[in-house]
Design brief:
The structure holds two protein chains of two kinds. Helices cover 0% and strands 66% of the residues of chain A. By secondary structure, chain A is mostly beta strands. Helices cover 15% and strands 42% of the residues of chain B. Classes of the chains: A mainly beta, B mainly beta.
Chain lengths: 176, 197
């Protein structure tokens, strides 16, 4: 019986970060490539309140490009997977608050300035997740992904709802 | 046994990767201080031991309310009958979180006559760091820094327009307090303001 050919899948994830991914699976072996972006504010102090309109100079951010290898494990029709690899990160990490500039306005508008660090590093990306049952009637497969990048500058953790197009995991899991 | 070997290999691989992780580049950046006037109003900026301090005037409902109780402006300049000129800047406009500091700098120029260089001296020129939240008692209880002995302390007036009373200049000094172990170097100071009548 010939060995099943590898399958390709791709998609994106949304959560406390955004990411795109591409995966190649052969039986239970999983190779994963991903690009992720996360934006977050200081835990306290000026600019810490959530606001989509908050100026970028009160936000830390990190971009990641990673290649991972791992394994998948069918659990009924659900697929569990885990992977680790190597990743490049580039980011900006806010430091201490320095000063604010207030404009002349009725309610007062302020722009806050922080010290910050720009960095690039190599880290260890990790990912564990699950994919809900696949169906030929539905082109997209939903999943949950928990991602991390452990690096000397700033480790980042994300929880995302993931969307997969194509087939992931062993070939015999597809149901009509 | 096979499972144990696989788990051990995976753990060893992960540890190897963790050891290989490293920083490639890192650059620490301090925000620059603005130049000129902010809100077309009095502005005074400097670095205190390398950290930027920005004080400027602004207007909103809060400042209008406070004006009924006194002069709450951040940056003020007054000229006295004996030709003494005082420039005071306090960064009250900052939304400094609790535990942070507000900075109050008062420069006294003796015998002000316009453009030129003025030497600053103790005790007339002062500097204080006040803890947030502000407590009026702090003005008397917080250490008062004055011009450190045997140091260079000066203001250079670059522009003085008597008709509009617009004053621009630069300054630098080192201040110290008897109870404090370290002095504060105030560098790259500049102001652009209107002197009160």
């Amino acid at each position: 019986m010939p060995a099943p050919s590898p399958s390709w899948a791709g998609g994106f994830g949304l959560g406390n970060g955004v990411e795109i991914h591409v995966a190649r699976t052969q039986q239970r072996l999983l190779l994963l490539g991903r690009g992720r972006y996360k934006l977050w504010g200081p835990e306290s102090g000026p600019g810490s309140a959530f606001s989509l309109l908050q100026a970028l100079n009160t936000r830390s951010q990190q971009v990641e490009l990673a290649a991972l290898a791992g394994s998948s494990l069918p659990l009924g029709r659900t697929l569990l997977y885990g992977a680790a690899g190597v990743g490049y990160v580039a980011g900006r990490q806010l430091g201490e608050y320095r000063y604010s500039i207030q404009t002349n306005s009725i309610l007062g508008e302020a722009t806050h300035y922080y010290a910050y660090r720009d960095y690039q590093a190599l880290g260890v990306p990790l990912e564990a997740g699950l994919l809900l049952p696949e169906s030929k009637k539905r082109p997209v497969r939903l999943g949950l992904a928990f991602q991390a990048n452990l690096n000397p500058e700033h480790s980042v953790y994300c929880a995302l709802l993931s969307f997969w197009f194509g087939h992931v995991g062993p070939a015999n899991l597809v149901h009509r | 046994m096979r499972l144990l070997l696989k788990a051990s290999s995976a753990l060893a691989g992960l540890l190897t990767l963790l050891l290989a992780s490293c920083s490639l580049t890192k650059t620490d950046v301090e925000p620059e201080v603005p130049s000129g006037q902010l809100n077309a109003d009095n502005t005074l900026v400097y670095y205190a031991n390398g950290q930027p301090v920005v004080a400027h005037n602004y207007g909103n409902l809060g400042t209008v309310f406070l004006s009924f109780f006194g002069d709450g402006r951040s940056v003020i300049s007054k000229r006295f009958v004996d030709s003494t000129l005082v420039v005071r800047g306090a960064d009250w406009q900052n939304t400094t979180p609790a535990g942070g500091k507000n900075h109050v700098l008062s420069l006294t120029l003796a015998k002000f006559h316009g453009q030129g260089t003025y030497l600053l001296s103790s005790p007339a020129t002062t500097y204080q760091e006040l803890a947030v939240p502000y407590d009026p008692q702090q003005a008397t209880s917080s250490p008062l820094f004055t011009v450190a002995p045997a140091t260079s302390a000066e203001v250079i007036i670059t522009t003085w327009t008597p008709i509009t009373r617009r004053l621009q200049g630069t300054f630098r000094l080192v201040v110290a307090a008897p109870t404090q172990p370290a002095s504060v170097a105030i560098t790259d100071g500049q102001f652009d303001l209107f002197v009160d009548q």
